[in-house]
């Protein structure tokens, strides 16, 4: 499939999402960055501002998300909208790629963790680059399994992750795109 037929779905935020977008643009892929009115993002290419009605379509209980991820999420309107945009990203894709940290309880650290958990719930192909372990893992049969060199094979894929992208995370994404798009 030609590169321009691939679509990256992301949020355009600083860190991993910005890097995913830069690499998609460099390799000639299409890009959709879901956001909402008043939310600051770094990517300006492919911005898709969700309406309040669209955000409401992906509403989820913050109590449920907090319990699922073993951490507290406030009822703040901005956090709710961020989680809703993540659901739009995951829902639009067949493969999900995340940069972050896999915690001992099997969840991924921070708000990024909701993208990984929602991908699990939706039974999407999920890969996480754990910056602390400097390694890729995939979610299979209810557990994380080490994987050497994942590739983007789905026409619609999500790229999300930490705002605090480290050099090894940046290199992992560069390698992922190089392997996937010659």
Write up what this structure looks like.
An 8-stranded mixed sheet has the order 3-2-1-8-4-5-6-7. It has helices at residues 16-26, 52-57, 62-69, 77-91, 112-121, 167-180, and strands at residues 7-10, 30-36, 47-50, 95-100, 125-130, 135-140, 143-147, 156-161. Helices cover 35% and strands 24% of the residues. Strand 4, helix 5 (112-121) and strand 5 form a beta-alpha-beta unit. Helix 1 packs parallel to helix 6 and helix 4 (77-91) crosses helix 5. The protein is an alpha/beta fold and 182 residues long. The protein is built from 6 helices and 8 strands, in the order βαββαααβαββββα. The longest helix has 15 residues, at 77-91. It has a single domain (3-180), classed as Rossmann fold (3-Layer(aba) Sandwich), CATH 3.40.50.
What's the number of helices? 6
Rg over alpha carbons: 15 Å
Helix content: 25-40%
Q: Quick one: CATH class?
A: Alpha Beta
- Write the H/E string, N to C: EHEEHHHEHEEEEH
Q: Order the strands across the largest sheet as they lie in space.
A: 3-2-1-8-4-5-6-7
């Amino acid at each position: 499939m030609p590169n321009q037929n691939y679509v990256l779905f992301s949020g355009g935020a600083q860190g991993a999402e910005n890097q995913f977008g830069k690499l998609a643009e460099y390799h000639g892929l299409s890009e959709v960055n879901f956001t909402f009115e008043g939310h600051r993002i770094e990517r300006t290419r492919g911005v898709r501002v969700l309406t309040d009605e669209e955000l409401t379509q992906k509403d989820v209980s913050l109590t449920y998300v907090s319990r699922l991820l073993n951490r507290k999420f406030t009822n703040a309107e901005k956090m709710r909208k961020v989680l809703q945009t993540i659901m739009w990203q995951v829902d639009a894709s067949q493969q999900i790629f995340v940069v972050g940290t896999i915690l001992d309880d099997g969840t991924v650290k921070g708000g990024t963790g909701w993208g990984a958990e929602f991908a699990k719930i939706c039974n999407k192909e999920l890969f996480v680059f754990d910056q602390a372990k400097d390694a890729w893992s995939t979610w299979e049969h209810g557990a994380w399994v080490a994987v050497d060199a994942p590739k983007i094979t789905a026409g619609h894929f999500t790229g999300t992750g930490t705002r605090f992208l480290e050099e090894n995370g940046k290199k992992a994404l560069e390698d992922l795109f190089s392997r996937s798009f010659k």
